[in-house]
User: Which sequence fits this backbone?
């Protein structure tokens, strides 16, 4: 098998790849027939791992900009009810494309809105991931507790519990391969699903060897709702239903007391930390450093683009560092290498993927090469990368296959995908969406060197 070698990086060194796996990192002597990827003084990291996303929300950015979670959901649920599988596909192409150019090689998407019960939305997500070329952890989300039964979502957006479980099995049968597409069982949240769905979902997932995912402890309102309805806090409620274990990762995990942090750590339950979205909704700050110290896997998540308008993962590294220090008031509580670990191996651990997230031999060759000419005056390259300007990756490899080259996707015209997404999104606007007078484009840079320190060249 021909060897690929990434050469010329400022950090950490050369990287040799064979048959989709990292073979060596360091000073690597050349071999006849090597395929050389020129890192051109850049910084190489393991591909970033996004542990929580809602790709469909690209269609509803810029709404409810002054609302907390419950108000935001109340405004958006009726809009999401109009989405179909083609809309979801258009949003997923843009969302996964933007993730890829932000250095992300694996994304977990939690899709819980299934208008009309059409589970072709999950086929749309998987197809988009295949086109973009990054790994997808496809979380078959669900809601079965509507307004008339005390839940938050409108009744017309919830599904019957039996239908959900049958569909989840079918989606897993169609798509789960354990490598490029991994299906996860993912009831939405305590305020949108019944205890019965939580219990039966856990039983089903464990019978098939699938992981579990849900939102938990995101807002103080959720905590009050849980105490009112179930007589306990969210973590205790989830624990009683068998949802605090090593095959589970939770989105947000903000409102936790010391005992709950210790319980998650002892169980090995992961937490997807979504700092920008949490700030946008005023939800609070996750106790990341405490969770890590307790032994809980913690990764980074973008969350939906309707609550994180950027939609890329790179910005979350610096935001996670800043949020950790603001929460505690201690400037040394999270250092740049720790933030990078959250975005790589921490995320891989949340998803149960020990084969991902490490830039070491024996792990899958998922890599991001970052342009770094603007960082040459900074001694430590990891400090420079994490604390420096938001940037797009120059090159991204997934299993040794190039999916981003010179800052551009190899399998998708992202400008065209954005135009199609905008066309679909405008019909959801209250006025029907008059076309803009100019064609929308994403920001561009004149050449790959200018990708450093900007949102970058269009990919």
Assistant:
């Amino acid at each position: 098998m021909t060897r690929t070698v990434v050469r010329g990086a400022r950090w950490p060194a050369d990287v040799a790849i064979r048959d989709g796996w990292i073979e060596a990192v360091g000073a690597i002597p050349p071999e006849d027939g090597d395929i050389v990827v020129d890192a051109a003084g850049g910084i190489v990291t393991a591909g970033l791992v996004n542990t929580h996303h809602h790709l469909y929300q690209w269609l509803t950015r810029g709404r409810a900009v002054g609302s907390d979670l419950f108000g935001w959901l109340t405004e958006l649920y009726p809009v999401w009810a109009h989405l179909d599988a083609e809309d979801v596909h258009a949003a997923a192409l843009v969302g996964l494309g933007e993730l890829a150019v932000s250095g992300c090689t694996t994304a977990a998407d939690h899709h819980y809105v299934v208008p009309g019960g059409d589970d072709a939305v999950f086929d749309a997500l998987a197809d988009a991931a295949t086109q973009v070329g990054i790994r997808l952890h496809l979380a078959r989300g669900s809601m079965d507790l509507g307004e008339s039964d005390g839940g938050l979502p409108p009744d017309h957006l919830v599904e019957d519990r039996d239908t959900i479980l049958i569909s989840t099995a079918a989606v897993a049968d169609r798509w789960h391969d354990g490598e490029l597409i991994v299906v996860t069982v993912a009831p939405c949240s305590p305020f949108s699903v019944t205890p019965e769905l939580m219990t039966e979902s856990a039983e089903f997932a464990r019978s098939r060897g699938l992981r579990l995912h849900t939102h938990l402890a995101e807002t103080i309102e959720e905590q009050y709702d849980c105490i009112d309805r179930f007589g306990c806090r969210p973590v205790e409620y989830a624990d009683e239903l068998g949802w605090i274990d090593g095959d589970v990762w939770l989105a947000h995990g903000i409102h936790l007391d010391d005992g709950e942090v210790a319980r998650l750590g002892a169980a090995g339950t992961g937490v997807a930390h979504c700092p920008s979205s949490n700030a946008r909704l005023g939800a609070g700050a996750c106790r990341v450093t405490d969770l890590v110290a307790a032994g809980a896997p913690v990764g980074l998540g973008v969350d939906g683009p309707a609550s994180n308008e950027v939609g890329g993962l790179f910005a979350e590294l610096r935001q996670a560092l800043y949020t950790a220090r603001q929460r505690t008031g201690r400037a040394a509580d999270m250092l740049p290498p720790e933030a990078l670990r959250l975005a790589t191996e921490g995320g891989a651990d949340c998803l149960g993927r020990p084969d991902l997230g490490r830039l070491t031999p024996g792990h899958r060759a998922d890599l991001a090469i970052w342009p770094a000419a603007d960082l040459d005056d900074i001694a430590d390259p990891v400090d420079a990368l994490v604390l420096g300007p938001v940037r797009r990756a120059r090159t991204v490899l997934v299993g040794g296959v190039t999916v981003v080259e010179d800052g551009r996707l190899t399998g998708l015209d992202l400008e065209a995908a954005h135009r199609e997404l905008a066309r679909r999104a405008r019909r959801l606007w209250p006025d029907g969406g008059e076309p803009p007078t100019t064609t929308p484009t994403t920001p561009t840079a004149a050449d790959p060197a200018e990708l450093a320190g900007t949102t970058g060249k269009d990919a």
Notes: DSSP finds 14 helices and 17 strands in the chain.
